[in-house]
Amino acid sequence: MSNIIDLTQAETETHAYQNDAQFQGLTKSCAMDKSAYEQLLAQPGVEKVRTYFSLDTNNKLSIVVVGVDALGEDMTSGVILGDSEHCPYYCPSNSSLM
């Protein structure tokens, strides 16, 4: 299964979330360092990546990212990503996804 989508679909989906009244004022995006993803993907046995929505220590919507093995199980004994940079605050200045 390909998880690659075109820009039009990405814009439609992100704008639907951002414009929905129930999500106003919440996190719009999260950014993490490339090196963190590289460490996660370099683990032996990683076949996929799973992203969990979470609430960070400031009670803000965030994400936690883990590797997934060939059986579809989370690799929780390995590298786990979190502490992302949130938008609002850390936002792109010129993105059609916003």
Notes on the protein architecture:
The protein starts with 6 loop residues before the first helix and ends in an 11-residue tail after the last strand. Strands 2-3-4 form a 3-stranded antiparallel β-sheet, covered by helices on one side. The protein is of the alpha+beta class and 98 residues long. The chain is globular, with a radius of gyration of 15 Å. 21% of the residues lie in helices and 24% in strands. The protein contains 2 helices and 5 strands; from the N terminus they run H-E-H-E-E-E-E. A hairpin with a 5-residue loop joins strand 2 and strand 3. The model has no long low-confidence stretch (mean pLDDT 93).
Keywords:
alpha+beta, two-stranded antiparallel ribbon, single chain, 98 residues, 3-stranded antiparallel beta sheet
Topology summary:
Layout: H1 7-19, E1 29-31, H2 34-41, E2 48-55, E3 61-68, E4 80-81, E5 85-87
Antiparallel strand pairs: 1-5, 2-3, 3-4
Please mark out the parts with pLDDT under 50 across 5 or more consecutive residues, or reply none. none
End-to-end gap: 27 Å
Helical proportion, percent range: 10-25%
Strand order of the largest sheet: 2-3-4
Rg (CA only): 15 Å
Report the structural category. alpha+beta
Annotation field: number of helices: 2
Largest sheet: 3 strands, antiparallel
Give a short overview:
The chain is of the alpha+beta class. It has two helices and five strands; from the N terminus they run αβαββββ.
